[in-house]
Amino acid sequence: MRKDLEQIHQQIMAIAKESDQVAQSKFTEDDVRKLQEKLKDIDREYKEGIIDDRSPTSTNWQDDPYEHNGQGVVADELSRVHNQLYMMLTIIDK
Question: What is the model's pTM?
């Protein structure tokens, strides 16, 4: 996994761990929204199913970020955490 993707992977895993901890207690909508805010930075980098981890100075037009090791893992993890937070929001007593 490339260094940029590894850092994003670690960020997602930290948010996933925190959401698991929050889910084990009586949580509020604000608790879940705070976790969603943490995902926003990652979402900004996530475009069309990838994190574009190519060097901005690269002139190699054959460098396809879809083929970079770890893209699928990061995409799956990001989706899983988003789904978990969505499910948490749906079970909150309003």
Answer: 0.74
